[in-house]
Amino acid sequence: MSLKKSLWLALLGGVCLTAGSALAQDSGPLIDLLVKKGIVNDQEAEDLRVALVKDFAANTSAGKLNLSSSLVEFKLSGDLRMRYESNAQVPELATGAAPLVNETSRQRFRFRFNGDVILQKGWNAGFALETGQSNDSANQTFTSAADDYGVYVARAYVGWSPNTNWSFVLGKQKNPFYTTEMRWDADISPQGVSELYKYFIGAKDTFELRAMQHAMEDRAEATPGPAGRDTWMFEQQAVYTHWFAPGNLSSLIVAAGYSAYNQSTITAFVAPNSAPYVGSVRAQNYGTLAGEVNLANVNGAGTAFKIYWDSSYNFTGATRAYKVYNLNPAVFSKGSTAWLAGIGYSYGTGKVQGDYSAKLDYREVGVTAVDPNTNDSDWGFSKTNQKGLKLALTYNVTDFVNFNVTYFDTKIMQEKMTFALGNLNRSHELLVDLVVKF
Amino acid sequence: MKKSLLIFAALVAASTASAQKLVIKGSDTLGAKLVPTLAEEYKAKHSNVSFEIAAEGSTTGIAAIIDGTAQIGMSSRRAKTTEVSAAQAKGVSMKPTIVAHDGIAIIVNANNPVGALTPRQVEQIFAGDITDWSAVGGAAGKISIYTRNTSSGTYSDFKDLAMKKRDYASSSQKMAGNEQITSEVGKNPSGIGYVGLAYVHDAGIKVALIDGILPNKETVLSKKYPYARPTFYYTNGEPTGEAAKFIEFTLSDEGQKIAEKIGFVSVR
User: Fold this and answer.
1) For residues A304 and A294, is the Cβ–Cβ distance under 8 A?
2) A-B C-beta contacts closer than 8 Å
3) Chain A residue nearest residue B224, CA to CA
4) Which of B102, B122, B123 is nearest to B114 (CA)?
5) Using CB atoms and an 8 Å cut-off, which of residues 66-105 of chain B contact chain A?
6) Which of A129, B6, B45, B218 is the most buried (most CB within 10 A)?
7) In chain A, what residues touch B100 (CB-CB under 8 Å)?
8) CB contact, 8 Å: B223 with chain A?
9) B94–A50 CB contact, under 8 Å
């Protein structure tokens, strides 16, 4: 064997040994090069290929997987969160009733496991499993040591993007809207059909039209009238994203939308949910306006300052207050508006050890101003008729471990309301989390 | 009488003991013309050997080796990782032997004015990005795509070699063998398909130049032709017995001359 041939074969062996068997099947180009240079002949090359494949199949985990040829990418991810939670709720009581403070302290955990696949021809699909049956929280409280805890399907969707402009998703899916938690709890995965049209303006700017037909509840059609009609929420939104300069990470986002329900009804309260369903979807016609300004590198490379806002107005708020909540419209008709204004500061993207971020927002949420079925369960316990602050701090202990602290404090906006949805005089909550992501 | 019966029984036993049946399954590219011709020549020299040849696609040939239902599996593609793994799980050691080289020729109707394509155009046509002949310099007309079926080694080889592993256009029509493709393209002025070199002389078709290169012995062996590939016999480990002798015959001067005569490129 010539020295040159020996060197080439040593190189191939070295690649396989140092890069590991998992790379054996990727040695095809190197084998082809050996053939081309006359180091091995075609038959020797084939024997080598089979030997490498056998080694790959026998000695690696990847070699034992048999994945569909239609698969372009299969991503598995998830996180595990350990939480300490302390909160207090002081209900608004009828005149003369004894004062009451509900205090809770508990240890909780959340496990989430996601599978997302990209298929050929623009198709994709995915699922998410998580602890917790509630749509707005996957937390499980550590209860009795005799207990085990359930796992539920939080997402199951199929998507199709025929081109770069259009995409459609069917099933229980990630929220397709630009929004803050004021209107949409971040844990909720809506179910139904969503459509996105993205129009590119110049190098990076985009104008998007987003819509979703959200199947809120399957009703028994045998029941006459709206109570027997499946419940659908229809939301649509226009989102404009502008980048201040090419290569500059500073941006402006403005999103305007409208959402409404069909004439139907909904179960009064779904037990595990923090969000109190209200037994009626009547008179919910929301106009929304949200957005943010991101200023990059304001305090050195990697830093960012952010101003963000959200707002919602129920065009039929007075009707809802009177017809659904049975409130005096002369007093409570003012509760049709909700708004949020916040600031944020961050270093890094939250993916590298040492990255951190802080967000602080103030909100006022009128009693009929947002959909109580979807709003934030980690602010005022999903109740409306509240105003107050929310602070969120995050620090990356490692690239994959986060330490988070969240605190909110709310007070009642319009007093003397004893209706369940808005009867919180004041509340606060402290959440301390350790999150491991994989 | 008793003596005659004994002699007859002994003769039957002897003939049964020496009769050999070679079961060969797999690739249509190899099994439609080359292997039957080799088998005939081999039988002429070894009268005690019979053949059972089933040419239903490379996948079936590799599966037959894994299942132990054939001594030789014909394949126009390499065994996949999952097939080698499945074989190992059953204690089968896949052993490839290159029997001839081949080029996957792109064929169009003989009356089609288009006689040359680029690799990019080939990919776009078979993936469905280009649907009209006018986009590649031909007369306006919807392109009819003919491919092999999914058990064919040529089907998967072509995806690897010509289509960057993309999927075929949904409008493509899947044919059972090379001859069906040449027949359809020969009848359809808007047709395009691919076949092994053994089938490029069928009536009504012509071979398209790819980047100015035609598939032939020189371009296939030098791999200048982009869709060149080896073809294989697969066995369970080193071949033995009659299978080893038949493979030896295939690789002999005589066997390789037969391969060249049929249209393949000799391994020598």
Assistant:
1) yes
2) 48
3) A36
4) B122
5) 78-79, 81-82, 84-85, 88, 93-98, 101
6) A129
7) none
8) yes
9) yes
- Average pLDDT estimate for B221-238: 94
Is B160 in CB contact (< 8 Å) with chain A? no
Joined together, the tokens standing for residue B182 give 């040449």
Instruction: Say how far apart CA A122 and CA A124 lie, in whole Å.
Output: 7
Question: From the list A25, A46, A50, which residue is nearest B230 (CB)?
Answer: A46
> In this prediction, what percent of chain A has a pLDDT beyond 90?
55
Domain boundaries, chain B: 2-101+230-262, 105-214
Residue contact A46–B93, C-beta within 8 A: no
Contacts 24+ apart (CB under 8 A), B117-122: B117/B208, B117/B209, B117/B210, B118/B210, B118/B211, B119/B162, B119/B210, B119/B211, B119/B226, B122/B162, B122/B163, B122/B210
Q: What is the mean pLDDT of chain B?
A: 91
Q: Does B39 touch chain A (CB under 8 A)?
A: no
Which residues are within 8 A (CB) of B10 and not within 5 positions of it... i.e. 6 or more apart?
none
Higher pLDDT, B12 or B239: B239
Structure confidence at residue A430 as a pLDDT band (50, 70, 90): very high
Q: What pLDDT score does A275 carry?
A: 53
Compute CA distances A279 → A137, A151, A286, A372, B134, whole Å. 20, 27, 18, 11, 62
| Mean pLDDT (whole number) for B187-197 | 95
Report the Cα–Cα distance between both ends of chain B, in Å, rounded: 57
**What are residue A124's phi and psi, to 5 degrees?**
-150, 165
For residue A121, is pLDDT > 90? no
Domains belonging to chain A, first-starting first, are: 3-64 (no CATH), 71-437 (2.40.160.10)
On the question of pLDDT at B167 being above 90, the answer is: no
Q: Is the pLDDT of residue A328 over 60?
A: yes
Which range, of A14-23, A167-176, A395-404, A408-417, averages the lowest pLDDT?
A14-23
Please name the fold of domain B2-101+230-262: D-Maltodextrin-Binding Protein; domain 2 (3.40.190)
Contacts of B97 in chain A (CB under 8 A): 43, 46
* B105-214 has the same fold as B2-101+230-262: yes
B-chain CB neighbours of A42 within 8 Å are 98, 101, 230, 267
Whether residue B230 and residue A42 make contact (CB cut-off 8 A), yes or no, is yes
CB B27 within 8 A of CB B75: yes
| A234-243, A336-345, A372-381: range with lowest mean pLDDT | A372-381
The answer, for B213 touching chain A at a CB cutoff of 8 Å, is no
Could you tell me how many helices (H) and strands (E) chain B has, helices first?
11, 12
What pLDDT score does A14 carry? 53
Class of the CATH-defined domain B105-214: alpha beta
A105 touches B at CB < 8 Å: no
A424-434: buried (b, 16+ CB within 10 Å) or exposed (e) per residue? bbbbbbbbebe
